[in-house]
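Sequence design from tokenized structure. All designs in this work follow the same two-part layout: the structure record, then the generated sequence. An example of the structure record is given first.
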């Protein structure tokens, strides 16, 4: 079963084709481009590139797996909209995977997973032997350092961990961004069971940077003050 993997919840614009065969999961092609300001421009060419490299036509795909965040609003939305559109156009299911889970799944032991949330904050969670130990949250690195002090966390992965390792009091390790194959692994059971397509609900954890201005009160006519 061939699956298209997408993730735009971090500066890494990720597209990959994974083969969920009887012998395991194999990546047929992958492209990871780090550019925090060009998700919308680079995702479609990345999809075309991995499909071409894998020798796969869109209608050969059995499902789409996409990272649902947490991540900044604009970048995350690019991947989710693309996945939902392709799912509808091709008539195949789409499944969401927490982006932190994909990073955490590649770890062993007790590890902090942290991605950059901008505004001098990080998206974070603690993982134990690849499984979530805490729910995903957003906070300043100094606050996270306090929160994990009793968790026995000495190691961390993710771009956020690299950026704020000193404040967090941890040793930052690879990977910096979620490995594409981990998205496929985390969704494999749903794909093989041909589970119904899921609502791709973004995990923002906070309001977007750009919001509509509050409605202004109407001006009062003379004599109404």
């Amino acid at each position: 079963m061939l699956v298209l993997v997408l993730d735009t919840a971090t500066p890494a614009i990720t597209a990959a084709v994974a083969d969920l065969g009887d012998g395991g999961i194999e990546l047929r092609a992958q492209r990871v481009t780090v550019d925090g300001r060009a998700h919308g421009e680079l995702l479609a060419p990345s999809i075309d590139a991995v499909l071409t490299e894998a020798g796969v036509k869109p209608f050969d795909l059995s499902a789409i797996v996409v990272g649902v965040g947490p991540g900044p609003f604009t970048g995350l939305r690019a991947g989710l909209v693309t996945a939902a559109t392709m799912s509808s156009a091709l008539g195949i299911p789409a499944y969401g995977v927490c982006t932190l889970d994909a990073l955490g799944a590649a770890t062993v032991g007790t590890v902090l997973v942290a991605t950059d949330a901008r505004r001098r904050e990080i998206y974070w969670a603690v993982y134990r032997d690849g499984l979530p130990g805490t729910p995903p949250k957003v906070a300043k690195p100094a606050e996270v350092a306090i929160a994990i002090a009793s968790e026995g966390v000495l190691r961390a992965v993710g771009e956020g961990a690299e950026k704020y390792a000193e404040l967090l009091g941890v040793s930052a390790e690879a990977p910096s961004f979620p490995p594409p194959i981990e998205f496929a692994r985390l969704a494999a059971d749903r794909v093989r069971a041909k589970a119904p397509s899921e609502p791709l609900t973004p995990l923002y954890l906070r309001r977007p940077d750009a919001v509509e201005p509050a409605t202004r009160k109407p001006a009062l006519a003379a004599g109404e003050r």
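Residues 80 and 200 are 7 Å apart (CA to CA). We note this feature because it recurs in several other targets discussed in the main text.
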